[in-house]
Amino acid sequence: MSGMLGYRRSDGRIGVRNHVLVLSTVTCANRVVQRIGFEFPEVICIEQAAGCMSLDDDRVITHRMLSGLALNPNVGAVIFVGLGCEHTPARLLREEIGDAKSAQSIAIQACGGSDEALAQCREFVLRAREELARQAPEPFGPDELVIASKCGGSDWTSAMASNPAVGLVSDRSVAAGGISMMGESAGWFGADHILLARARDEAVRVKIMALMHRLYDAAQHRGGRIDSGNPSPGNIAGGITTLTEKAIGGIRKCGEKSPIEGLLAPGERAPGKGLWLLDNPSLDPASLAGMAAAGAQVILFTTGRGTPVGSPLCPVIKICASAEGVRRMPGHVDVDISDIVTSGASMESGADRIERALREVAAGRTTRTEQLGHREFVMPQVGVL
Amino acid sequence: MISGGQKVNADPAQAGAVRRSLALHPRDNVANALEPLAAGDRTSAGGGAIEILEAIPLGHKFATADLAAGADIIKYGESIGKASRDIKRGEHVHTHNVRTLMSDWKAARAAPGGAR
């Protein structure tokens, strides 16, 4: 009935894409990864802005994120490319993958330089590509669907229409036995009391509040306030006045019915079904990266003002309820639900259209972000809000 | 969910036209303009006729009640900020006359009845 088709991995998970991933683990390895990207444009190549010389908190995040990205079910084969002297060796990351999927690691120092590393990497990519091309997709149901919801370039229509419509899809998805995730922790301020009221139990409430206090104090420690840069100038021009207003509108993406099962650190994967909160930055590519590392197959992304941003690993479905936004950036919108605002179409009809697009994309239809090659990536770090 | 703000007359050329707007919750004291509003326009969000006192850009908020400085700005039935000065019914409500609740976030969460 669902029509969704995926690629089964050895670890039992199912992906809606069959990517070969070439993952740099430290900036020093970026050039090799870049050159693979020039040779094989369809291969997913991710570079790093750091990966070494960080404090323990960022090192732990980087480690878990790199593992999480490689284990994303949309990845069919992964090669880690490192230098060799960094804190998180490529070899260790490869070991952690086990036999979940085809995997390899390369350390540039160990293989004698960039050209040698490139040759090994090329060999892996050619082999993996061939292997993945032979894999037939299989049907799967909504109980195996893992979605994440995101808002970016928000305006007044986000809270009024697109976020609640995505929230309905989230509720339906959870009711069908799937997993739904929502991130952007620094964007929950002012709506934190609503999230607490929906938490499964006291342990989850304590975890959420501890994170909120940590984020708030960190901003203050650095001489700012948690809403110093949020809402953005574009949000304000679009009618959003305060972070509280944005937050209450933002959390409508996680619906109204499902309890919050837990809060996951960057790179952590949901240990069970249901609705989960992700601690990740509000900066769109960093948030999308966190969702991919948490295991999302597809990301539902609402926007009012329009944004081109995508994800290297997940199809991102852009949903817009602003007639102006659709008119301004028509080539970036997958689902136009502006009639909810302009002519009173029901929220259910909006959710139906999003759900239809979700199923089609999970059956292989490409999104605008994929067609346009949007693969932005920022590693979540402690200082990135 | 979206209702109210009947469209009686949408001719943008006509001054003092009746225009569409929407309050999201019965307790709200602000509403969103569903079309750009000009001084003299009339609208009906949140019950009763409201005369718009100044230009309100598309999607921006206006007061549906007179608000004294320090009053909570209520949207979605929740406070989203405090009036930083007196705001008249029909006036634009935005960053120029609203202050954030975030300066007091910790105190509000620590207070009895506040979220833990």
Question: What does the model show?
Answer:
The complex is a heterodimer of chains A (385) and B (116). In chain A, the strands form 3 sheets. Chain A has a 7-stranded parallel β-sheet, with helices on both faces. In chain A, strands 4-3-5-6 form a 4-stranded parallel β-sheet, with helices on both faces. Chain A has 15 helices and 14 strands. In chain A, strand 8, helix 6 and strand 9 form a beta-alpha-beta unit. Chain A folds into 2 domains: 116 residues, Rossmann fold (3-Layer(aba) Sandwich), CATH 3.40.50; 230 residues. With 385 residues, chain A is of the alpha/beta class. Chain B has a single domain, classed as Archaeosine Trna-guanine Transglycosylase, Chain: A, domain 4. Chain B has a 4-stranded antiparallel β-sheet, with no helix packed on it. In chain B, strands 6-7-9 form a 3-stranded antiparallel β-sheet, with no helix packed on it. Chain B has a two-stranded antiparallel ribbon with strand order 3-4. Chain B is elongated and about 50 Å long.
End-to-end distance of chain B? 30 Å
What is the helical fraction of chain B, as a range of percent?
A: under 10%
Total of domains of chain A = 2
User: Any idea what the shape of chain B is?
Assistant: elongated
- The tally of beta strands of chain A, per DSSP, is 14
- Order the strands across the largest sheet of chain B as they lie in space: 1-2-5-8
**Sheet having the most strands of chain A:** 7 strands, parallel
Globally, the shape of chain A reads globular
Helix content of chain A: 40-55%
Round the Cα radius of gyration of chain A to an integer and report it: 20 Å
Uncertain residue ranges of chain B: 1-10
Task: Identify the most extensive interface between protein chains.
Answer: A-B, 40 and 33 residues
